[in-house]
Every structure is written in structure tokens, then in C-alpha cells.
Design a protein that fits this description.
mainly alpha
Length: about 200
Amino acid sequence: MNDNVTIMLCGQFRMFERYAEETRRAIFFAVWEARQAGSGYIEPEHLLLSLTHDLNNKANQLFSLAVHAESFRRQLGSHASAKSSTSVDLPLSKAGKRILAYAAQEADKLASKSIGTEHLLLGLLRENKSTVPPLLATAGISLHSARNRVRQEMGQPVLEREPEREASSRKMLRPFAAFLLLIVVLSLIYLIVRLAFR
């Protein structure tokens, strides 16, 4: 990357002061990937491919992403274009913005001061409106397993199940439970009325 691109990126990503140096490098590589693909936006697939550039980043150390780089690139081939983007400023797509927000949330959950590439990977796995989670699944990386691998690395206990899924399944059961309670109450009222008028 030339100095003009680096200067432009520093201005564009000023809000990422909390990001570790390796995460900033990954974002720079994501811009490069987006340009190579001829994209007008930094998409989730560009963020994924960016993690494969630096063999020493935490995401690569934990999940060996670089080993799958060519496979990822082949499978994402339909997203790439033969011409490079000439856009001076490449913004994040909506999905890209969500991924960075998820990465910050994941770092917060783990009480991490800085946002590392491992958190960026967790953010990618949380973005359901993207081709990245199924692609990572082909490499044996799921959100649950990745969270536990990061937790182990930090010396934290592993999670048996995902807290969000548990909470969402409880929310889904609430209307059903309320409906059952209503049936029980109406049945009791019916029985009381029948007994009263015998």
C-alpha cells in the first residue's frame, strides 16, 4: 500500500483507536482486497481475506486461517471482479460496520482493552447476512467453537452453550407458555362454573 492510501485510511479509521495494531493492519488489507475485487465497499469477505495476510496475527495463530486462504479465495470468486476499484475512499458496507460493532462487543464480553483480530473473526462469525460464516464452517470454525478457543487462550472457562441463543430461545417460548397458561386458567374457570351450576 502506498503512503497516500495509509494517510487516507488513518483519517477514515480514526475511530478505531481501541483496535490493536494487527487489527488495523487487517483493515488496511481489507481495503486492498476490496480494491482488487473492484468493490465500492469493504465487505465481510474482504475482512475475512484480510485476516489471512498476516501469519502472526492472533486470529491466524488460533485458527490457521492462512492455510485456508486459497480455498476462501476460490469460494469467494463470484464476489471478485477482474478490475481494481479506482475509488479513493472505500467505506464499509452495512454488514462491514455491523462486523466491527460485533467485534467491539466480543472484546467487551471478554474484558479485553483492545480489539484484536480474534474479536474481528468473532464479529465475522456473527454476521448472518453474509457468506462468511458458512465459509468458515467449511474450515471447521463456528461461532461457539471460536468463542471457546478465544476464551481458552485467555484462561477463561469455556461456555457449554451460547448465552444469546439461550436467551432468544427463552423469548420464543414465552408466547407459547402464556398461551398454555391461558388454556389452563380458562379450563379451571369452566370447571368451576360447571360445578357451581350442578
